[in-house]
């Protein structure tokens, strides 16, 4: 008989960082953090540690598992097979996660899907995917203001003891160098013009071009995540760290949610900065809402996602209940749409994730050709950035983000990316500055304005004026 999961109430914490501080140095500790409970998708926090097994996909696409479990060699099939080994009996509950996989699927998993992506170089050494198999979790429901421990009786006693411990001392975080751009302004401009030539030749309708920024650091990445979260709270945050690596994500964008057979994706396309005054802020928002170009970009990606969902959803079930609606965050305004569907009976959430991966909002359309051009023009791999963070639970529930506004720690260096979708009538200077609008607040939270190179700062300031 399988051990039964029990649901035990715990004291509610509006800020999950208090709880996670007691767990974060345990093996495989992971936090999925709804730092904006008022935003769509921001209802639940999920915390766990001490996974039963950890599955990684290395940079050559090889599957590795630290438990003695025979798994398929294909990444998504291996993940499903590992999920199927979780030997617990879930209770009847509306909570989103009752044990299963938590972790990330990096953008570079696309290299397993589309074999021609091999031109750019690898700079960040994180694996393409890292998922733990968890048999317990602490769930916080910010709508009901309740916290629950989901665990077997034996495991629950262990977790209670961990939560009662005093958080360990953390070494102060500090940058040891300014952030610098992988591409200077001229290099970005050349790639922008290359994208325009591809668009005019009819290869694509839209191509997402990004640039990477890096800086040295010392101290604890957990302190960095706390700074980032304070500066830019979002509904799809996440933190996980191991060895000399960490993933710190402050994403505003849901990729795919599955509840039973109900599917939802929320693509973001269209961005304006927040204004320094209320009048400026409202003007930026109105400009975005009324922009034919931004609405057209959003609709292109909605069509792409309708096609992706249609591959594994019931015929005729894919709908667009919301199109190009305004959502505002600490650093930017966005246009957001909602696409829904009903999953085919024979399909699993991981089948859906594989069919739609990576998200169309961060590739362009048509997707495969856009990804090939991205691989040609961007100097280095995207790693976790533009992949997904999230969970898949044993009942078939899933929720994943698009890993934008994401900082990676790797062997004493931080990396983050900013980008945007380019179309035929895009303006080079405006698009370049948009990449800075999206991430400047993150860089400034970690240091100060000097974290942005002087050349980038001049360009950023000229756009603000």
Note down, in words, how this protein is organized:
The structure is a single chain. The chain is of the alpha+beta class and 465 residues long. Helices cover 29% and strands 30% of the residues. It has twelve helices and 24 strands. It has helices spanning 17-20, 75-83, 110-113, 153-163, 185-200, 221-231, 278-289, 292-310, 349-356, 367-377, 428-446, 454-464; strands at 6-10, 30-33, 44-48, 53-57, 63-65, 100-105, 129-134, 137-141, 146-151, 174-175, 180-181, 206-218, 236-242, 245-251, 254-259, 262-265, 268-273, 319-328, 332-342, 364-365, 388-393, 398-401, 406-410, 413-422. The strands form two sheets. Strands 1, 2, 3, 8, 9, 10, 11, 12, 13, 14, 20, 23 and 24 form a 13-stranded antiparallel sheet that branches. α6 packs across α11 (428-446) and α11 (428-446) packs across α12. It starts with 5 loop residues before the first strand and ends with a helix.
Strand content: 25-35%
CA(first)-CA(last) distance: 67 Å
Helical content class: 25-40%
Helical stretch tally = 12
Largest β sheet strand count, sense and barrel closure: 13 strands, antiparallel
Q: Could you tell me the radius of gyration in angstroms?
A: 21 Å
- Report the count of strand segments: 24
Q: Spans with pLDDT under 50 lasting ≥5 residues?
A: 449-465
Mean of residue pLDDT values = 91
The secondary-structure class comes to alpha+beta
The 3D shape can be described as globular
Question: Notable features of this structure?
Answer:
465 residues; alpha+beta; 13-stranded antiparallel sheet; 29% helix; 30% strand; globular; disordered C terminus
């Amino acid at each position: 008989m399988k051990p039964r999961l029990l649901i035990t109430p715990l004291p509610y914490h509006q800020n999950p960082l208090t709880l996670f501080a007691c767990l974060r140095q345990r093996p495989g500790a992971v936090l999925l953090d709804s730092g904006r409970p008022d935003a769509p998708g921001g209802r639940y926090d999920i915390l766990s540690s001490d996974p039963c097994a950890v599955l990684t996909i290395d940079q050559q696409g090889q599957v590795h598992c630290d438990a003695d479990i025979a798994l398929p060699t294909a990444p998504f099939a291996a993940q499903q097979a590992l999920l199927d080994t979780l030997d617990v009996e879930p209770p009847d509950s509306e909570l989103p996660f009752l044990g299963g996989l938590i972790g990330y699927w990096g953008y570079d998993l696309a290299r397993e899907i589309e074999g021609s992506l091999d031109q750019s170089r690898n700079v960040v050494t994180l694996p393409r995917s890292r998922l733990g198999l968890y048999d317990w979790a602490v769930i916080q429901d910010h709508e009901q203001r309740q916290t629950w421990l989901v665990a077997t009786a034996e495991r629950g006693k262990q977790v209670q003891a961990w939560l009662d411990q005093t958080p360990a001392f953390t070494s102060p975080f500090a940058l040891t160098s300014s952030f610098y751009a992988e591409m200077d302004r001229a290099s970005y401009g050349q790639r922008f013009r290359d994208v325009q030539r591809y668009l005019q030749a009819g290869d694509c309708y839209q191509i997402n071009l990004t640039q990477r920024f890096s800086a040295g650091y010392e101290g604890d990445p957990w302190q960095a995540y706390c700074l980032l979260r304070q500066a830019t709270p979002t509904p799809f945050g996440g933190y996980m760290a191991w060895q000399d690596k960490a993933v710190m994500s402050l994403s505003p964008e849901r990729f795919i949610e599955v509840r039973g057979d109900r599917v939802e994706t929320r693509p973001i396309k269209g961005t304006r900065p927040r204004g320094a005054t209320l009048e400026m802020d409202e003007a930026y928002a109105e400009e975005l809402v009324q922009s034919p170009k931004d609405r057209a970009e959003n609709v292109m990606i909605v069509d792409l996602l309708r096609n992706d969902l249609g591959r594994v959803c019931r015929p005729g079930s894919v709908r667009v209940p919301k199109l190009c609606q305004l959502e505002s965050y600490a650093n930017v305004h966005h246009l957001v749409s909602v696409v829904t569907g009903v999953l085919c009976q024979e399909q699993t959430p991981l089948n859906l994730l594989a069919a739609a991966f990576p998200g169309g909002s961060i590739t362009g359309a048509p997707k495969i050709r856009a990804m090939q051009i991205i691989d040609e023009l961007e100097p280095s791999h995207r790693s976790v950035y533009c992949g997904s963070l999230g969970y898949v639970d044993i009942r078939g529930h899933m929720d994943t983000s698009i890993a934008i506004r994401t900082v990676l720690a790797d062997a004493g260096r931080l990396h983050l990316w900013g980008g945007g979708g380019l179309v035929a009538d895009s303006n080079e200077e405006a698009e370049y500055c948009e990449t800075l609008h999206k991430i400047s607040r993150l860089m400034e939270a970690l240091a100060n304005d000097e974290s942005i190179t002087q050349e980038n700062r001049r360009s950023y300031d000229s756009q603000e004026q």
